[in-house]
Every structure is written in structure tokens, then in C-alpha cells.
Amino acid sequence: MGIGQIDCFLGNPDNWEPVCENLRDLNPDITLQLVKTVTTPADFNLIQGNNRFCRKLAESLLSDSLTRAFTPTLVSVCDAWQGCFNYCHDQAAMKLFLDALQNKGFADHQAITHELNILGSDLSTAFSGTLLPIELAKACLNIGEQQTAGFYYDLISLIFDNQFTTSQTLCPPMDLSQAIDMNKLRSARILTVGAGGLGCPANLVLAKAGLTHLSLIDFDQVEISNLNRQILHSSSRIGLLKVESARIALKSINPKLNITLYPEALSTENARTLIGQHDLVIDGLDNLPTRYLLNDACYLENKPLIEAGALSYYGQATALIPDDGPCFRCLFPQADGQTAGSCSETGVLGPVPGVIGVLQAVEAIKQLLGLTPNLTGRLLMIDTLATSFDLFSFKKDPSCSLCGQDPSIHELGSFSFVCEDDRLDN
């Protein structure tokens, strides 16, 4: 987002140098340094980790604030598939939050050892890690609503509570170590359409999740204007094809990952062939005509589509499962001359597509593993200014031209791109 200086205190500083190198490549103007104490003077503090780590550092800050002014602090506790964070503007707020964590079930849980719960912990960290910069931006710019009552999330049950300290929500430790066949995830072939604002965070999460094969399609090249939100790219790879840049980043995360690249645009000529070769598709587009094309091709090829969009401070996500729920046309019927602003035209706060892309990856994993509830037939609407996540159900439209009772679409029609500079990405 352009923060000028970041001081980092790490529970395990062993990997500091490569992390620092990557961050400087993303933003050469940033100042980064490793510090030995969390009480280093700063304008804001951000603490993220498990309950034990966060409580230890928060108590250190409380002790330090006895002798000098309290620094506004975001505390984010991450557990398997769930987590909670709070914006603490004074000592009383931090003490209240720590008490709520203890009283509602965020104790020092046993070490997470089962593969599925390790994955859930990574997903929880990724989700809160995209939300926290938004909360920091809101505090710096004095916009939106600060989460002074705590924000709790449960990625399995799709519970999002932004009144955590005063609500009745409980958060006992999750245990999903029942018989789940993780090979369904490892062997899955996922196609992401677009290597931009949504595709980058989605694929970063999937690469860490243990998949063995990902496919990326995007015809565009990396530009400096992409770097505030497209986190797989960097300043040293400006001018490189986005799919190539993404492959470099993803292979550094998971060297065993097989990545197939399609440096081209999705079209009526290639859509069904490409989609037919995969088990699930992730939509990283930001223009309506191609989203209709993608929806139609996935329906005709009987492939699940994780659909999403992000713009300004807002976003949405859903899962479109052929013959098991509505399609994109049921939710947004097509009209002549229909257009929508892109991120390039309208603007977007950098981490917002990150939140949506992480949710797409979570939903893809849940669909592949058969974890419920999921987003089939439900639309998740996100307002990051209010940190609100609202679920709405929607049904098949009997008159839908694609999946209705008397469909008129049986083959892919002609589509043209309607997006600034003909770009595919977010």
C-alpha cells in the first residue's frame, strides 16, 4: 500500500532475509528493519500469530504503556480455520479483547498436527493477513469503521462477527481430523483465469495448500501500477508476462508445484477445451462479457466455478456448481450493452482483492474436499470499510437462458472484451 517504514519483530527470524528481499522487490522505496522488541516506538503496532504469541506481545505492550503513551495496536489471533482481531486504541480496549479471547475459547490450544488443520491455520493466517492492512489503512486515513469490538471469523461455518467482544459468539478449537481424503486436493487440477488482483492471492494460497498442478491463463504483462494489489509480481519483473512472473513466485513457494501457462486471452475458441481439462476454475476477471463466457463454458463442461469480484472497498464471492445450484446468469442476467468499471478505471484499495482472492482459494479447497457449508447458491458480500461480511441466498432462475427450464444457450456465443486497455486482470 505504500507504507514508508516497517519494523519487524518475528517469533522466528530465520527466514528474514528472503522475506525482506521479496518485499523490497515489491516496493523498492520501503524501509525495512528487524527489531528485537515489540516495544520499538511506532505510529501503529500490528501483532499477528497464535494465541500464546499474541498474548505475550500484547502484555509486553501493556507493561510498556505504564511508562509512556499507548500505541494504537491491531492484535490478530489465528487458529485452524478461525481467528479474531481487534483494533485497540487504549489499554482498556486491549485488556477487554484479551479477556474475550480467554472467555470465548481462544485458549492455548494444543499444537496443530493434523494435515487438514495445518492447512486451516495457513488459510486463517492468509485471510487475516489481507484484512489487517485494510484496518491499518482505515486507521491512518480515518475512514470507515474501526474494529474496536473485535472481528471474529470461522472459515468453515462462514461465520463473520464484527461485534465479537459483546456478542454471544463462542470459538472453541476446531478439529477436522476426521476422514478427509487430502489426495482430492493434492491431485486436483485448478485453472485460474487472470493473474491479477484476484488470481495472485488465490494462487499463492493454493500453492501453499499442497496442490500439485495449477494452470494460469492471462495475456497481459506486469506494470508498475499492478504492484499495489497483484502480490505475485514485483518491480524486477515489470514487462514480463504475468503468467511467467506468477510462475516464478509460485515456484519459490512450492518448488514441487507443476504450473501450466497459457499466455493468451480466454476466448470462445479455447474456453471449453481449457476448462474441460481441469477439475475446478477460479475467476480472476474484471469484465462482464468474459465472465459470462467463463460461466457458460464451465456450465457446458460441468466444472465448478469460484466466481468473485472486487472494486473500491467492496467485493463478493460465490460458488457456481453446474446442476447443483444457480449460475452467474441467474444472479446477474445479461443485458445488451452491459459494462462495469474495472479496477484501473474505478480504483481499488490494494488489499481488497487480496481478501476476495483468499476467500476464493478457501472456497475452492472446501469444494474439492467436500467441506460444508460452502458458497453454492449463496453470495458473500464484503464491505471492508465496515468490515462486514453478509451472506445472501439465491436460487436458480427457471427462465435462465443457460441453466433454466427451456435454455436457449447450448454453445458459446460471440464475446468481446469490455475493459480498460483490454486487460483481463483485476
Describe the protein's architecture and organization:
The strands form three sheets. Strands 10-9-8-11-12-13-14-15 form an eight-stranded mixed β-sheet, with helices on both faces. The chain has a five-stranded mixed β-sheet with strand order 3-4-5-6-7, with helices on both faces. The chain is of the alpha/beta class and 426 residues long. Mean pLDDT is 90; it is low at 416-426. The protein has helices at 16-26, 51-64, 91-104, 115-141, 183-186, 199-208, 242-253, 271-276, 288-300, 328-331, 343-346, 351-369, and strands spanning 5-8, 31-34, 45-49, 73-79, 82-88, 151-154, 159-161, 189-193, 213-217, 258-262, 280-283, 305-311, 314-320, 378-383, 388-393. Helix 2 runs antiparallel to helix 3 (91-104) and helix 4 runs antiparallel to helix 12 (351-369). The chain has twelve helices and 15 strands.
Topology record:
Layout: E1 5-8, H1 16-26, E2 31-34, E3 45-49, H2 51-64, E4 73-79, E5 82-88, H3 91-104, H4 115-141, E6 151-154, E7 159-161, H5 183-186, E8 189-193, H6 199-208, E9 213-217, H7 242-253, E10 258-262, H8 271-276, E11 280-283, H9 288-300, E12 305-311, E13 314-320, H10 328-331, H11 343-346, H12 351-369, E14 378-383, E15 388-393
Parallel strand pairs: 1-2, 3-4, 8-9, 8-11, 9-10, 11-12
Antiparallel strand pairs: 4-5, 5-6, 6-7, 12-13, 13-14, 14-15
Helix pairs in contact: 2-3, 4-12, 6-7, 6-12
